[in-house]
């Protein structure tokens, strides 16, 4: 391999995620796409055909009627990915699950099961849950605060990784002559006792060909970045303008090294919704059209409200300065309610301007004819903004335009693979297989 | 339909469940069957080809090295069934999940997701978790007591059913002209506040073609039977000698009616591991051979220990009278530790005899040439012992013998379907689709 290559993941949004609230009206989008397993299988097979690294399924658990169409009614990630697994052979299968609202034993087992079903292609995107309303679906009156959620997340991942090592790789000789199915010395309890969890183990599931599922994370806040640097092997990064993406990339790699880890063993994916057309002009027009189509101010406000516990901003005068809502931000989520407030104050923005700017933030930097989009991707890659892109498309046709138009150019420039390196997600991402902690001579990843 | 028909489910045991501890040595059994999704897909497709009602996946979460081979290393039921779903079209997909060690919102969502993925074929076998050691995987020092586990199970099912009704059936008009994707009046919070759970809802998933997943249960104790009579639509029954099966069947139907429910809307499945051969004599020989092969006393003791919190009976004199272990039985599980003790006392049994009798209990009543097995099944069915049989086979070949030999005879006698009645599990089991509780004019199931 003459140069470092780009990783690509596909992020399907069914009938429409944030900033795509009108997508369900597109005649090319099936009205039930978000709950139709065949839609996901088609997306996965298209991604695998294009040699993408992974299918990335995000998640949330709190809704109200103002939420994006795809959020209202969608399949649960692990059941979805298990169904997709047997229809693909190389594609990584990354699913979001909350460390705040699950038990480590249950969740570790489900990801290990997906890892077996897929032959070593499972990835877990660890989230601490963003919507404060989620807590009320789990018996809590209040969302757990930031520090508790991130402390819990770190311990949760460590417990899961401990459970995944319950069996050493050669625990099952299944030797008929010696009448030994299991070598009991290679089955290990965990006996974890920590601040948030007590888990005895062992897990009733052996390791897959990739050793352990790959840990993804989506840290933006201080706590999130630190968690990522400690345990993440992939990051679902916020993206944004080039300079911001560069700073984030450098910061995560620096923090990872500071924790004694190889910074190459954490792959940073930015979110990208490329708009490809025959000419640059046509692509620009289409991008503006999409933006205007979705430029529904009520929806922007509802999304802004998500960062403040589904706060309803619409009852206020939108052209007054952004209000003092710091008390709502204390338990805030991923996109950083505190940062929104800070920026609004610094730049003296009205509420309308804040909501509008969030929509602008989601506009893609990758717009143009195939050659142009490939140029922009290469430029961003070389500028140290990402290791991979998490691609979202509005329709199956737009995915096809990217795959047929842009991917071959990236391949010609030796920026993207021409065949899979491995059958496992770790293998394709260039991540090491963690040695089992109980195996003699194990040194860790 | 001239007469009532039998339902059949398939219960795959991979490398060997209870009483099959030597099965992994059979050259026809793949050493990794229990973790190989293709084994389950083949089993499911064979069951569907034979027009069976369902694939039934049981589960447990606590192991030690003495447990049956299949328990040591097996796939998690919901990921497994999701993978199987897209390779089948009519077969019901019933998975075991614990109401003691899950949260209702998470679990309701996963079963609803499987229900969508399968187009209305999901069933949930509600268990309260039998192995007392499971508690230590979930941060509890002590297993919850019987009353608490069953109280929690009832409320858990009611919460799940409430969440499954979050959306009315016509909640998504997806009307482009009127610009209405969701009709917000048809999305309902649950706002459940009970003894064990507080769950606000709504669930972010709509109803499937069968309205709600089918509820299975496996109640043997007083609390278990009562729970079944209140909420179960299918039962995984203990079986045993004919008279015992008759009493159980009549008791469950009576209790169901006493709760104001139609006793026909609870389908009782007994466990059966038929042994079919060309002649009765050959089948009897084979059955004895299997029994002797698996007649490993240490394994019987380990299984007996399961009912007493993985108690190690092997340290005692096995030919002394059964000891006073009532204190270990207080939190006991499904097969009724208390009943074992009572019987041991009444019949003045030694420990060895108790362990041996548990093994005898698992011997199948359905042994013989195909015609004989069909006769026995008809006889048991007409005697009011079951609505369906949960069939377990040692090998894929033995499943084939049953399907090719016995099923056609049952069909000739009009005891088993010759084509599927429906594409949903409810449809094939003859269970009603529960009306959504929020829909005007709804009367309930």
From TrEMBL, chains A, B:
<dbReference type="Pfam" id="PF00296">
    <property type="entry name" value="Bac_luciferase"/>
</dbReference>
<feature type="domain" description="Luciferase-like">
    <location>
        <begin position="32"/>
        <end position="384"/>
    </location>
</feature>
<keyword id="KW-0288">FMN</keyword>
<dbReference type="InterPro" id="IPR016215">
    <property type="entry name" value="NTA_MOA"/>
</dbReference>
<dbReference type="InterPro" id="IPR036661">
    <property type="entry name" value="Luciferase-like_sf"/>
</dbReference>
<comment type="similarity">
    <text>Belongs to the NtaA/SnaA/DszA monooxygenase family.</text>
</comment>
<keyword id="KW-0560">Oxidoreductase</keyword>
<protein>
    <submittedName>
        <fullName>LLM class flavin-dependent oxidoreductase</fullName>
    </submittedName>
</protein>
<dbReference type="InterPro" id="IPR051260">
    <property type="entry name" value="Diverse_substr_monoxygenases"/>
</dbReference>
<dbReference type="InterPro" id="IPR011251">
    <property type="entry name" value="Luciferase-like_dom"/>
</dbReference>
<keyword id="KW-0285">Flavoprotein</keyword>
<keyword id="KW-0503">Monooxygenase</keyword>
């Amino acid at each position: 391999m003459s140069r470092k290559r780009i990783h690509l993941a596909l992020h399907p949004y069914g009938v429409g995620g944030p900033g795509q609230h009108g997508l369900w009206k597109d005649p090319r989008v099936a009205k039930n796409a978000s709950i139709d397993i065949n839609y996901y299988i088609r997306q996965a097979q298209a991604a695998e055909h294009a040699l993408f690294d992974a299918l990335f399924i995000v998640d949330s658990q709190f809704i109200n009627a103002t939420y994006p169409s795809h959020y209202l009614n969608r399949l649960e990630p692990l059941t979805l990915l298990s169904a997709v697994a047997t229809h693909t052979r190389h594609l990584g299968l990354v699913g979001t699950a909350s460390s705040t609202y699950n038990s480590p034993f249950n969740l570790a087992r489900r990801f290990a099961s997906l890892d077996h079903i897929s032959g070593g292609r499972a990835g877990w995107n660890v989230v601490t849950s963003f919507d404060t309303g989620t807590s009320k679906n789990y018996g809590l009156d209040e969302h757990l605060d930031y520090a508790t959620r991130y402390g819990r997340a770190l311990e949760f991942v460590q417990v899961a990784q401990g459970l995944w090592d319950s069996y050493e790789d050669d625990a099952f000789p299944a030797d008929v002559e010696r009448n030994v199915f299991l070598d009991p010395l290679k089955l290990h309890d965990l006996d974890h006792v920590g601040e948030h969890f007590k888990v005895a183990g062992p897990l009733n599931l052996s390791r897959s060909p990739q050793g352990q599922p790959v840990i993804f994370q989506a840290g933006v806040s201080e706590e999130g970045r630190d968690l990522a640097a400690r345990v993440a092997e992939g990051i679902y990064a916020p993206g944004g303008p080039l300079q911001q993406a560069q700073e984030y990339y450098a910061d995560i790699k620096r923090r990872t090294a500071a924790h004694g880890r190889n910074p190459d063993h954490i792959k940073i994916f930015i979110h990208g919704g490329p708009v490809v057309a025959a000419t640059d002009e046509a692509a620009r027009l289409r991008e503006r059209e999409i933006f205007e189509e979705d430029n529904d101010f009520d929806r922007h406000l509802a999304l802004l409200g998500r960062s403040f516990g589904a706060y309803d901003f619409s009852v206020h005068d939108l052209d007054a300065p952004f209000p003092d809502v710091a008390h709502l931000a204390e338990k805030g989520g991923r996109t950083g309610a505190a940062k929104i407030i800070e920026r609004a104050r610094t730049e003296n923005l009205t509420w309308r301007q804040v909501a509008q700017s969030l929509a602008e933030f989601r506009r893609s930097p990758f717009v143009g004819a195939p050659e142009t989009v490939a140029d922009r991707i290469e430029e961003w890659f070389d500028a140290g903004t990402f290791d991979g892109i998490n691609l979202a498309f509005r329709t199956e046709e737009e995915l096809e335009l990217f795959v047929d138009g842009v991917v071959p150019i990236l391949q010609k420039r030796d920026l993207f693979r021409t065949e899979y390196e491995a059958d496992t997600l770790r293998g394709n991402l260039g991540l090491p297989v963690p040695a089992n902690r109980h195996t003699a001579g194990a040194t860790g990843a």
